[in-house]
Design a protein that fits this description.
alpha+beta, Type Iii Antifreeze Protein Isoform Hplc 12, 4 domains, 5-stranded mixed barrel, 4 helices, 24% helix
Length: 276
């Protein structure tokens, strides 16, 4: 009877050791078994990494299919902003979307993504777009964006001192980035006729309404003509301005013939339209 050998009870150890039958002094049948296992196991061992890689790749592909690509979210936001700007007939625009967190993992939406803007959000400057998945996944992502809107604007053609009454030759029209102008802008030379600079304006300054003021057409104590009526039938009388006024401003005037105080709107220099 062949004595029991420790390696016989542990064929795995035998396989790993890869010792020869002569070194172990095994029975020939044991040697045959060892050689058979040696012939079979190495190919399986060599294929194991490939099989594992294939399984991991399949699992990764399944996982990726369940995740909403961030590119789809950004494309939806981009298309929404482009269409919104087009509908509002803006001039040339530039849109720069913010980046999404690369760690973002959202369930893939089975329906088309929907984009909208929160109430009160502007279509210029720094803004945001809400991209929403309307199906059971029910998620919303806010995409930030920087929108530049370009259009015609009036800029000073030369340096203007404070108090200068502007004329058409003082300004020119140039394409300007408008979204950064928080107080609006002027587009036509007609808008500055008779206006005066509130402060010194260097050449190339984009003009906004807050930089200009209408000149006083009437000052307190000035003699003015009060005009009442419409069309060919009008009544005129003399008055004295109680306070200063610019074009279109409502002021108080004392009618000289009755000393009565009336209110009217400044039409031009020394002319006030009243309703009697």
């Amino acid at each position: 009877m062949t004595p029991s050998h420790p390696y016989r009870r542990n064929p795995t150890f035998l396989y790993r050791a890869q010792w020869t039958a002569q070194q172990l002094h095994f029975h020939p049948t044991e040697a045959i078994w060892r050689v058979t296992m040696t012939a079979i196991r190495p190919p399986l061992r060599a294929l194991a990494p490939l099989l594992l890689a294939g399984c991991l790749g399949s699992l990764r592909a399944l996982a990726d299919d369940a995740i909403q690509p961030t590119a789809d979210i950004l494309n939806t936001a981009q298309a929404f902003l482009e269409q919104s700007l087009h509908d509002q007939s803006h001039g040339r625009t530039e849109i720069a979307l913010g980046r999404l967190d690369p760690r973002l993992r959202l369930a893939r939406c089975t329906q088309a993504l929907h984009a909208s803007q929160p109430g009160g959000t502007r279509l210029s400057g720094h803004t945001s777009v809400a991209v929403h998945c309307p199906d059971t996944a029910e998620w919303t992502v806010y995409v930030t964006a920087e929108i530049k809107v370009f259009g015609p604007a009036l800029v000073t053609a030369r340096s203007l001192a404070r108090g200068t009454a502007l004329v058409s030759s003082d300004v020119k029209i140039v394409e300007t980035e408008l979204s950064s102008l928080g107080h609006g802008h002027l587009q036509s030379p007609e808008e500055i006729q008779g206006m005066a600079a509130l402060r010194t304006l260097p050449a190339g300054t984009v003009l906004t309404p807050s930089m200009l003021k209408a000149p006083r057409l009437i000052r307190r104590g000035d003699r003015v003509t009060l005009v009442s009526g419409q069309g060919p039938i009008q009544v005129e009388m003399l008055g004295e301005a109680v306070n200063d006024g610019v074009r279109g401003e409502r002021i108080r005037v004392r009618a000289l013939n009755s000393q009565r105080i009336v209110e009217g709107w400044v039409v031009s220099t020394s002319v006030v339209k009243v309703t009697l």
